[in-house]
Amino acid sequence: MKLNTLAAATLLACLTLGAQAAAPIEPTGRWTANAQGSASLPPMGWNSWNAFFLEVDEEKVLGSARKLVDSGLAKLGYVYVNIDDGWWSHRDTRSGRMVIKTSIFPSARREGKDTSFRPLTDRIHAMGLKAGIYTDIGYHSCGQAFSSNAEFLPKGTQAEKRIGLEGHTDQDIQTYFADWGFDFIKVDACGLSSFAPDSDNVLKKGYTPLAPLIWRGTPNLSNVAAVRGRYQAVADALAKYRPQGDYLLSLCAWGMADVRSWGKEIGNTSRTSDDIMPVWGRMLHNLDSTSKRALYAHPGSWNDPDMLFVGHGDFDQHHLTEARSHFALWAMLNAPLIIGYDLRNAPPALMDIFGNAAIVALNQDAGGHQATLGYDSNDAQIYVKSLADPSKKAVLLLNRGTADLKVTLLAEHLKLDPAQPVTLRNLWTGESSVFTGKSVYQLKAHESLVFEVSGTRLLRNGVYLSEIPGLINVAADGVRQPEIDPVAHRAIQPWEGTLSGGERPLYTGWGGAQVDATPYDQNLQLNGATYRTGIGILDGSRMEVKNDQRYRRFSATVGVVDSTRNMQGSAQFEIYGDGRLLARSKALKFRDAPQQLAVDTAGVKVLELVARPLSRTSDLPVLLGWADAALTDPVK
Ligand code: GAL
Q: H-type helices in 72-137, by residue range?
């Protein structure tokens, strides 16, 4: 793309803003994570896109809705029935109201009146389900950006084709939620990225230009504040028209515009990557974009690696190994479980996957802890998920590759005592088994095994912070300049093949807080000693930990990690309980002996862990470890 005058102006605006100011590290004494909307658990349901793309219609939507109810999937929690791109006719330029394409949604036609989805949402609600709608944050949708098939796209004048929220946020949210009765909205972002004044979309297709605020894969040029501001306006309008909070806001900025750092403040779910495709490598790509972000998900706001593609391509009924792996991984990551298959014709083998109550229960576990990696490599991974029941966990062993693989599970991967028996229940077969210390498995290509486990916790009288990511809010992670995460699987983009120069890493988030590793995926090593557990974070950070008066003691071994980028600067660790300073470390720098901190947390609701930069010798961050960080001595 050429840098034209308008785009250059955007660039200038970004440069003037400079790197995003770090969020404040001063304690607030409160849990400040997003509490708006209704997402105490990851949403579950169905969406038209992966099943039909732009060719959505009323019968397809209602048919899948009926199947959710008749098959019992709705009872398991699959309640959202979401219409994606393709539903719109045009915008009425006199009233500004959106007009529904009644040729595909006949029930929206009202003689002598404007169109309405109310009859459809009434029917969906009458089935005990909830209804979702799709829009874009700019003037135009992704269908308009990428499809050339006019049959499925809005028609009319240039102004009539402006179907996105730009300039209409309040009005559209009122229409969709107050008038039409929707419960869920997915807000896409092509309008902010694909309609540059010099783009084909503008010059050849005649769409309205908008100087890009999102530059895919080029975070320095994206105008993070402007993108965030637009999404915030959607959140505000939702709160206005649904003051009871009975709605769900799904952000679809595909991991761009540094959404990792702010999406959790605004949305109930936030896409971490570009679109999933029914291709194994692409599923890995989306998986990787979420799997290291456990500390950025908690009840109220979840990471979204995109909708399920179970039923298609590499995940169809002839590839049940892959289909099960994809599904179980999404469940473990607390991803939205949104089916993207034409359920009207779903074979029993696929319905059995969606309907595996034990695996759905992992996703819907009240603890709200996204799985973390007990073992990580490009070949095998071991995902471990804490459950609300402290005596249980879930584990998933994954063979990412195309050859058989031996995977050894250690009790330590699970943070369980290696000297005590560990009981496993295979959640696909129901079979139970027991091991002590370690257990060896032979996994076929793309196979995963998923178990519920119980054993004796390594930390008998409490929890490591790395075991409870759902109770942690990274209020400030110290990232000064958004950096692109280089470790996600770089699958060939199915829609582009090898036509480009290669698959470049795309999504910011590198340098964010990590469990059991540094922010750059190194060992948590402090002055020569490696710690298997803890939180790695940058200086200039603050984490909120929900204690809710449960544990009476917090302790950690703190210091600068040996792989720090800044070897001169120093930082000070501070611990606050409900806003009150409980402990402060001395100034610590590279190669200093780590310091033990322990505080009394009896009665504390919110613990805050602050890493205050002291002497900043350069812009490079000081990498820090809260090693062995744990809450212990539970109130009986
Ligand atoms: C993409 C989005 C997909 C789908 C599609 C519709 O940007 O990621 O999930 O909504 O647009 O055109």
A: 73-76, 118-126
For the CA of 254, the nearest atom of ligand 1: 8
* Number of the ligand 1 atom closest to the C-alpha atom of 190: 7
Residue nearest to atom 3 of ligand 1 (CA): 275
275 three-state secondary structure: coil
Contact 139, 208 (CB under 8 A): yes
pTM of the model: 0.96
* 184-188 β-sheet, strand order: 302-304, 269-271, 248-252, 184-188, 130-136, 80-82, 44-47, 337-339
Amino acid at 585: S
Phi, psi of 547 (to 5 degrees): -100, -30
Q: How far apart are the first and last CA of the chain?
A: 62
Give the torsion sign (CA, 259, 263, 267, 271): positive
User: Residue 187 is inside which H or E element, if any?
Assistant: strand 184-188
Determine whether 149 is exposed, middle or buried from the number of CB atoms within 10 Å of its CB (0-12, 13-18, 19+): exposed
Query: Is there a contact between 100 and 163 (Cβ–Cβ < 8 Å)?
Result: no
Can you tell me which atom of ligand 1 is nearest the CA of 147? 12
Distance 137 CA to ligand 1 centre (A): 12
488 CA to centre of ligand 1 in angstroms? 20
Structure confidence by residue, pLDDT tens digits, 93-142: 999 999 999 999 999 999 999 999 999 999 999 999 999 999 999 999 99
Q: How far apart are CA 217 and CA 503, in angstroms?
A: 10
Residue 9 C-alpha from the chain's centroid: 31
Query: What is d(CA 581, CA 609) in angstroms, rounded to the nearest whole number?
Result: 10
Mean pLDDT of 255-284: 97
Asked which of 238-242, 565-569, 613-617 is least confident by mean pLDDT, the reply is 613-617
| Distance of alpha carbon 121 from alpha carbon 37, whole angstroms | 19
- What are the strands, taking DSSP E only, across 376-480? 380-386, 392-399, 405-410, 421-426, 432-436, 438-443, 448-454, 462-464, 472-477
Using only C-alpha atoms, the chain has a radius of gyration, in whole angstroms, of 24
Q: 75 vs 106, 187, 427, 581, CA distance in Å?
A: 29, 27, 19, 47
Pocket test of ligand 1: the residue of 270, 275, 304, 493 to mutate, having most ligand atoms within 8 Å of its CB, is 275
